[in-house]
């Protein structure tokens, strides 16, 4: 034990005074090593640490300049200072966005694309602001309103099925898989199907169908039977109760409404109004959610257990720990959020501490990370308990917690190359050797091609906010106008819409007479229908909010994703090229997708994209990314468009190589750029031989060899 403690003291002195919390973690690990007769890994040198820190915290390799600045520094605190610098950088925001996008299954390939994009931006802002994790989770669970109020509503919009959403919520934040209990009692855990529905009852009142025409309370009956405006503004539950308690007042209101009614004169007219509004309100679909207190789930018709009956309404009840009862003025979902994030919750804090440990060291103390049961035991129970308390002491600041982990002597040791077999215990004599994630590979390629682009990570999409503001204005105007004003605006163009319908009917009849429909005729009919529908909806929109305000909504929202940006061509570089080379360069630049970090691209990338080839999650399952090697990955690195961008004359790496001097100096520079170190003596001997045999062609060969090699693709 004394020998291990001495090693820890020497290592701590090598990189400056350690944080007391980091020292405590090292001590708990050292006790475990002593118990199992293990030795810690050797201390990692600066060239390993600088690359590891940039990849683990900022999600990319360092630039040559960043590496050189770190290597030449003699400050004993330089590692701690670099950790602080990277945790405060936009690179951290970008990298952690990719991490949480996987965990939360965040995707913009959903019905509510506008809400999804607002959700992405909201997540980046929360990460950049270092919102305490417990507050972050509370915001997600209690969010309400429109996407213009908060992009966090995307959390509930992600899954239309409320029961499925509850299973994902429990798995992410409590590390407990209860999905089996949705259909039957859990076969491997204590959770019953009724337990599942009791948990689902906490969030069942969240209505994700809001934002469309249902937001507008239009009368459903012809003249004389309209719902008075005062009643129309109530929820269905409030309206039923009011009508039951005040029948005479309701009759009087209906009589007054009928006397003043001048719009909805027939069922046919109301159908036309609803049809017209349906088209106009399409942009608002999936852009808002509302909480309905008291709305509870019912057990399915095939419920087969004796503790309840099929169709029974289930009240909310917490799975474990203290009760989750609403305090005065609280809703059920607010009480659920308080229960979920409480330090007294037996799993909430442990799960996030365990998740962050795995993020830093490659393996969790409790595995599988999101299948925790009452019988789960950490590989180092004392360390798990300490990390749980540390998270509470840090007030759930993930940056503060990660800062401690990165400053441990154990993290700053050489990586463990021996894979821990399933069922065996990881004693963490150092971090695990890991292949870069798909996003880390991509962002490292971006760094080689363009340099440090962390500052280009968007934290606010002005175009998105402008459009969300337009939608908010639209729904507010509609509510201000009320049913009468909306119906009047709709009836103003009703005859034209009816004429459009007659024109479409005539086209359909003409095609039907022929008996068969060619693809061209079907396409022409669809185009004509869309054109007439757009004309009708645009006219109604103008009648509702005015021509000037309607213009932005008519144009619609066009995502400002970075994937379609074209790189700028350096004129000084262009001037050194021949005419044919310039043509080739312009052509390749037009096809160049290496322009932005992964966090700024569609989320997830489309199938076949570099990111998906390298294992980016499809966001259908929690934390579904893969780091498995494949033949397509090798082919992509050998001759794909990404390598073409990297070796293009306009790439930063190519320009730096041109200034490097001799071929020997260029080869050494490649090692610095890709591996953050200079070649060893043995490597120099091999490089010298290759350079003598291949001449200028050798530089391209060395580039390909390094990019496809494990030293580049793995976090050492």
From TrEMBL:
Boundaries of every DUF1549 domain copy: 24-203
Q: Which UniProt keywords apply?
A: Signal
Annotated protein name in UniProt = DUF1549 domain-containing protein
Superkingdom of the source species: Bacteria
- The DUF1553 domain is annotated at 335-690
- Show which residues constitute the signal peptide: 1-17
Entries under InterPro entries matching the protein: DUF1549, DUF1553
């Amino acid at each position: 034990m004394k020998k291990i403690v001495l090693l820890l003291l020497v290592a701590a002195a090598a990189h400056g005074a350690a944080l007391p919390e980091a020292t405590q973690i090292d001590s708990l690990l050292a006790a475990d090593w002593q118990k199992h007769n293990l030795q810690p890994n050797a201390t990692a040198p600066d060239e390993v640490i600088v690359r590891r820190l940039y990849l683990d915290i900022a999600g990319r390799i360092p630039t040559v300049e960043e590496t050189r600045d770190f290597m030449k520094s003699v400050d004993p605190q330089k590692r701690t200072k670099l950790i602080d610098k990277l945790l405060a950088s936009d690179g951290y925001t970008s990298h952690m966005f990719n991490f949480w996008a996987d965990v939360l299954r965040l995707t913009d390939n959903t019905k509510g694309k506008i809400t999804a994009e607002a959700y992405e931006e909201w997540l980046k802002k929360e990460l950049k602001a270092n919102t305490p994790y417990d507050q972050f989770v509370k915001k997600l669970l209690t969010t309400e309103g429109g996407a213009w109020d908060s992009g966090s509503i995307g959390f509930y919009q992600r899954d239309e099925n409320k029961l499925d959403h509850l299973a994902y919520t429990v798995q992410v934040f409590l590390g407990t898989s209860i999905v089996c209990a949705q259909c039957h009692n859990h076969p491997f855990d204590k959770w019953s199907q009724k337990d599942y529905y009791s948990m689902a009852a906490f969030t069942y009142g969240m209505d994700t169908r809001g934002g469309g025409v249902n937001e507008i309370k239009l009368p459903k009956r012809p003249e004389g039977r309209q719902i008075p405006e005062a009643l129309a503004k109530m929820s269905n539950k409030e309206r039923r109760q009011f009508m039951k308690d005040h029948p005479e007042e309701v009759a009087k209101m209906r009589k007054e409404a009928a006397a003043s009614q001048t719009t909805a004169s027939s069922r046919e007219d109301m159908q036309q109004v609803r049809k017209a509004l349906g088209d106009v309100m399409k942009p608002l679909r999936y852009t808002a959610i509302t909480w309905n207190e008291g709305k509870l789930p019912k057990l399915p018709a095939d419920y087969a257990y004796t503790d309840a009956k099929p169709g029974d309404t289930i009240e909310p009840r917490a799975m474990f720990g203290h009760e989750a009862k609403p305090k005065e003025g609280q809703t059920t979902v607010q009480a659920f959020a308080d229960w979920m994030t409480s330090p007294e919750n037996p799993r909430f804090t442990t799960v996030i501490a365990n998740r962050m440990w795995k993020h830093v060291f490659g393996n969790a103390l409790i595995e599988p990370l999101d299948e925790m049961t009452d019988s789960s035991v950490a590989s180092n129970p004392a360390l798990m308990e300490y990390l749980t308390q540390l998270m509470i002491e840090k007030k759930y600041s993930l940056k503060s917690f990660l800062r401690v982990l990165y400053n441990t002597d154990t993290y700053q040791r050489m990586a463990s190359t021996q894979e821990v077999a399933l069922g065996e215990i990881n004693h963490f004599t150092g971090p695990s050797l890991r292949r870069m994630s798909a996003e880390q590979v991509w962002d490292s390629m971006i760094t080689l091609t363009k340099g440090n682009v962390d500052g280009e990570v968007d934290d606010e999409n002005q175009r998105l906010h402008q459009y969300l503001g337009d939608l908010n204005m639209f729904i507010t105007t509609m509510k201000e106008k009320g049913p009468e004003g909306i119906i009047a605006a709709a009836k103003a163009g009703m005859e034209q819409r009816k004429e459009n319908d007659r024109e479409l009917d005539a086209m359909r009849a003409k095609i039907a007479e022929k008996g068969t429909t060619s693809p061209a005729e079907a396409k022409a009919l669809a185009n004509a229908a869309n054109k007439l529908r757009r004309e009708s909806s645009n006219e109604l929109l103008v009648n509702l909010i005015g021509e000037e305000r309607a213009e932005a909504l008519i144009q619609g929202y066009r995502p400002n994703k970075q994937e379609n940006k074209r790189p700028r061509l350096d004129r000084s570089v262009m001037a050194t090229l021949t005419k044919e080379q310039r043509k080739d360069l312009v052509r390749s630049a037009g096809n160049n997708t290496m322009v932005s970090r992964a966090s700024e691209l569609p989320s997830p990338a489309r199938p076949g994209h570099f990111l998906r080839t390298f294992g980016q999650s499809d966001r259908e399952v929690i934390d579904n990314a893969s780091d498995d090697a494949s033949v397509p990955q090798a082919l992509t690195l050998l001759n794909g468009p990404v390598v073409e961008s990297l070796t293009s004359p306009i790439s930063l790496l190519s320009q730096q190589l041109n200034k490097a001097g001799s071929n020997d100096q260029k080869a050494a520079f490649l090692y610095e750029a890709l591996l953050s170190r200079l070649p060893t003596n043995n490597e120099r001997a091999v490089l010298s031989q290759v350079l003598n045999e291949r001449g200028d062609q050798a530089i391209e060969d060395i580039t390909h060899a390094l990019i496809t090699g494990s030293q580049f693709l793995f976090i050492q």
